[in-house]
Design a protein that fits this description.
mainly alpha, about 140 residues
Length: about 140
């Protein structure tokens, strides 16, 4: 596989499923710390930007519903997401977006609950930067 294809794979995967892209970059493609950080940050920030632009259209397709009684148990991700939003607001959802949720899902949920883009998008991008640094440091030092 060519180097350009590897780079494009990491960038595009970072915009969709951040938690898979960094280990792939380090463990499979043998990128160093700076390459891993640069490519994962690029993809993550591009992903947040793109999904913040289309979130309004997605939210129109799925209007808010009245509260309904749940018949099934909540999943682990749902429980963590609800607790993070209730306790920490936009910062809680931003903190779990890159690692637990995916960037598209987390961005759309955050902008649905906190529609002020001027505040919400930079918070999510900051979370992507922080997680990219943490994961890049941990995984490049382990390999």
């Amino acid at each position: 596989m060519s180097t350009l294809l590897k780079i494009l794979t990491v960038i595009s995967l970072s915009g969709l499923k951040f938690m898979i892209a960094i280990p792939l970059s380090v463990l499979q493609y043998d990128f160093n710390f700076y390459q891993t950080l640069l490519f994962s940050l690029s993809g993550g920030i591009i992903g947040v930007f793109i999904f913040s632009m289309i979130s309004e259209k997605i939210n129109i397709l799925f209007p808010k519903r009245k509260k309904i009684k749940r018949k099934r148990k909540r999943s682990f991700k749902e429980i963590i997401t609800i607790k993070a939003v209730k306790k920490y607001g936009v910062y809680g959802i931003a903190a779990i977006t890159p690692i637990l949720l995916s960037i598209p899902i987390g961005t759309i949920i955050a902008l649905r609950l906190f529609p002020e883009k001027r505040k919400t998008v930079p918070v999510i991008m900051s979370s992507v930067v922080i997680w990219a640094v943490i994961l890049s440091v941990v995984l490049t030092s382990c390999s």
